[in-house]
Amino acid sequence: MRKRSLIAALRVALVLASLPLAAAAQDFLPGERARAVRMACTTDFQRFCRDVPPGGGRILRCLSRHADLVSQPCFQALTVWGLTAANAYRMCLPDVERLCPTLPPRSGQALACLADNADKLSKACHDSLSDLELLNGRTAPQKGQ
Predict the structure, then answer these.
(1) What mean pLDDT is reported for the chain?
(2) Is 78 exposed, middle or buried (0-12, 13-18, 19+ CB in 10 A)?
(3) Residue 19 maps to a domain
(4) Ramachandran angles phi, psi of 69, nearest 5°
(5) Helices 72-99 & 58-65 angle (0-180, nearest 10)
(6) Residue 145: inside a domain, yes or no?
(7) How many independent structural domains does the chain possess?
């Protein structure tokens, strides 16, 4: 049972590492969720990734590559972050197609475009990005969107 949950969570962590939201998380670490990952993974970061330069999601990718070796609290925090990021990607894909049609959906530019258009986002996308604390201080969508 432990092996099956480890494999499932590892897949989530790998998804986390491939999403632009994960890269954004590295640059927006003041948020509560990201702070929880940092607190849970500090020892693991020192152990496995201390030579990895920050930015671009490199630290999260490094921790994900060591998912089978990180502490249980770090593993759980990465899994929660990965699920939240995957949900945000799914919820925001229609908004990227509508508001940023010329940008690749998994790009940092698409995320920036969504943030720039926070007042035009669907409620689902806005709520998902807010859960990741990527829209702090941005206007909520108008009712009915």
Answers:
(1) 77
(2) buried
(3) yes
(4) -115, -15
(5) 130
(6) no
(7) 1
Q: Exposure string (b/e) for 105-138, b if CB count within 10 Å is 16 or more?
A: beebebbebbeebbebbbebbbbbbbbbbbbeeb
Q: Are 135 and 143 in contact (CB under 8 A)?
A: no
pLDDT at 107 over 60: yes
SS (H, E, C) 86-101: HHHHHHHHHHHHHHCC
Domain of residue 93 covers 2-131
Q: Is 144 a domain residue?
A: no
**Which residue blocks in 19-122 are alpha helix, DSSP H?**
20-27, 32-44, 58-65, 72-99, 108-116
For the segment 18-66, what is each residue's pLDDT rounded down to a tens digit? Answer: 444 444 444 434 467 777 888 899 999 999 999 998 877 788 888 888 8
Does the predicted model carry a pTM greater than 0.85?
no
